[in-house]
Prior knowledge:
Pathway: Carbohydrate metabolism; tricarboxylic acid cycle; isocitrate from oxaloacetate: step 1/2. This protein has helices spanning 38-44, 47-56, 62-74, 80-88, 95-109, 119-144, 158-167, 174-190, 198-207, 213-224, 232-245, 250-258, 279-294, 300-312, 316-320, 328-338, 345-365; strands at residues 22-25, 30-33, 36-37. The chain is mostly helical.
Amino acid sequence: ETGLTTFDPGFGNTASCRSDITYIDGDAGILRYRGYPIEQLATQSSFVEVCYLLIHGELPTSDQLAAFNDELRRHSAVPSGLRLLVDTCPGSGHPMASLSIAASGLAAFHTDNADPEDPDQVETATAQLIAQLPKVAARLYRNSTGKESISSDLSLGYVENFLHMLFGDEDFDQETKELYARAMNLLLILHADHELNCSTATVRVVGSSGANLFASVSAGINALSGPLHGGANQAVLEMLTEIERDGGDVDRFIAKVKDKSSETRLMGFGHRVYKNFDPRSKEIKKLATQILERHGRDDKLFELALKLEEIALNDPYFVDRKLYPNVDFYTGLIYRALGFPSNMFTVLFAIGRLPGWIAHWREQHAESNPRIARPRQLYTGPAKRDYPGHG
Ligand code: SDX
């Protein structure tokens, strides 16, 4: 229960493998942010409050939360040059590539806030990332659909403003707006941190060289984009669509997965750490049911997902390998029901994971003697041999 992480990315300093941020028990299916169970945070907290908790280590008082929200509003203006850069990214490109350009671009446009050794600049860079990347994400979405971007409305809450910039021209009634805000808060909270996953380890490795927060987060965005990691939520929807196109034959798909030669994976299933249910997937499945019932949609893909889960949870192939639904299995169905195109799903994962990446980068930076990551390899190449004419 010490929160000790055993993964050593070669920091050469065991202190770098310790963290006070997130505790996971993969066998018991436990996930806690700074000691608070994810189930409690997901249903009772807000994403901004969880950002504060992950970054500062304690839940904010009401004054601290108000001040943090003010700080985010104060640093929410995206530099005009960066807006131009984002607008020149073709709508046909994947928005994760544009998001990583934007994150890295913030260092080029906010030159006064990229010094990792200046605590005030780190605070400002933290606020700029959390406040500006959702605006960039909303702009990317609007551009990809050929719609005019919608200016932010700072009188709204953080999540409500994000949804306003995304869907502000839809005629949603108040009940729908509240459902969307509740769903987005919950989804962002559930994605906020997850110990030393691939993208967070990447942020730590890049940050260990002394690279600034913007550059390190940009690297994390790129690591997250892979289909084995954050890109899995999009891959799940593509998988379900393929099964539906194939007449909805779930049994045939499961047989294909079990045939190793097909190199087909049940996307959204399995996890390096969870050998039990991912506690996040339980919360997300509940939300998916609510959202789809609200939309009165007999979503065929949701039905297929339920059938796939039902079969896999009772099939020895999956049970023996301890493969359970992970955070990505149902999220894509929710994002789709909310109206997002599938190439935006991983962007939403990245917005959620921002506070975790930032918290880990800052925790590592605060160490007394942070050392550069330098993993070693086991050499398996040719023994010494001489160049012709030598030796
Ligand atoms: C995330 O690390 C994190 O915390 C990540 C994350 C976070 O919040 O940051 O939780 C987010 O990335 C969730 C995972 C999203 N990815 C997917 O859903 C893609 C599908 N899942 C897998 O590819 C796989 O399960 C991984 C990548 C998630 C984990 O891979 P591992 O731990 O390297 O597992 P493995 O490849 O060693 O597999 C062990 C066995 C193998 O079979 P055998 O060789 O023993 O016969 O299980 C099989 C694998 O073939 N297997 C699967 C499978 N996942 C593993 N078989 C079918 N379908 C799958 N999904």
